[in-house]
Design goal:
Order of helices and strands: EHHHHHEHEEHEHEHEH
Number of helices: 10
Radius of gyration: 19 Å
Length: 274
């Protein structure tokens, strides 16, 4: 019997990591504070009525240049190596894949983030993902960042759900993703998706996955009452199916919950054969 694919789709900042990825190396390299950097980015976006995502990318470019830092992919990878991860994240992906194997399903992991792909690619978990959908820069002939190449805001994130749904692994594609496709031909049906996110920028994706039969999970940093309150609000408003602390260890509620969802997906898949 053909094995179903189950896609686990993750935001990054606040979901797999307890902070914004720029705060674990880049901000220190430009000799400023997180508060100042994000305030400058917000001021630029507000003053120009511009995208918050494009504003932070411009601030990274400008502040690095002002400090004489040449932003090449290798530099971003180095920043990625310093990114802190929540407990259990390092072993999480393999553990879930092994559980899926036991249950007769194929587990695939994806990133859907407004952060930088180049930094995520430098983290020790980068190889765990089937595809990283995230912001990125365009580089010149010397390999230096010169312009935003992809900017992923909270609504742009939703397009990548449809790309996962249809098995499209190109960031650039705008044709195949919009073509009509029979439900039984789609690589990962929405009921086979599990979306992990932590905040407002994930709401459209959470809502779409939940509305179309998948499962959305709101995760929160258990050390922050503000984050916990935000997760409870997501649950109360019906944006997510479940909430759980951002603990990815083998003994965690997050792992038990994910396994239970995988069990349900497999049972529903098997029932369709009758």
């Amino acid at each position: 019997m053909k094995r179903p694919i189950v896609a686990l789709i993750y935001d990054f900042d606040g979901t797999l990591s307890p902070g914004n990825m720029q705060e674990f190396g880049f901000i220190q390299a430009i000799d400023t504070t997180a508060e100042r950097f994000w305030q400058m980015s917000d001021d630029l976006a507000i003053g120009q009525d511009a995208s918050n995502i494009l504003s932070y990318m411009k601030m990274m470019f400008d502040e690095a240049r002002n400090k004489g830092i040449r932003l090449k992919k290798a530099d971003f990878y180095n920043f990625g190596r310093k990114v802190k991860l929540f407990p259990g994240v390092m072993d999480w992906f393999k553990r879930v894949r092994e559980y899926g194997e036991q249950k007769g399903v194929i587990i695939e992991h994806y990133i859907n983030s407004s952060g930088l792909a180049e930094i995520i690619e430098g983290t020790p978990i980068a190889e765990e993902f089937k595809k990283i959908y995230a912001c990125s820069f365009i580089y010149d002939e010397n390999g230096e960042a010169i312009w935003p190449g992809v900017a992923v805001d909270y609504t742009a994130k939703t397009q990548y759900l449809f790309k996962i749904n249809k098995g499209i692994f190109s960031m650039r594609d705008t044709n195949l993703v919009n073509e009509s496709q029979a439900e039984d031909k789609k690589r990962v049906p929405f009921p086979h998706m599990i979306y992990f996110g932590d905040g407002d920028t994930d709401v459209p994706c959470m809502k779409i996955v939940k509305m179309w039969g998948g499962h959305s999970i709101g995760v929160y940093n258990s050390e922050s009452e503000k984050k916990k309150a935000a997760a409870k609000k997501l649950l109360r408003e019906g944006r997510v199916n479940f909430i759980t602390p951002a603990d990815y260890t083998a003994e965690s509620r997050t792992f038990a919950l994910t396994c239970a969802i995988i069990d349900k997906i497999k049972a529903d898949y098997d029932l369709k054969a009758f």
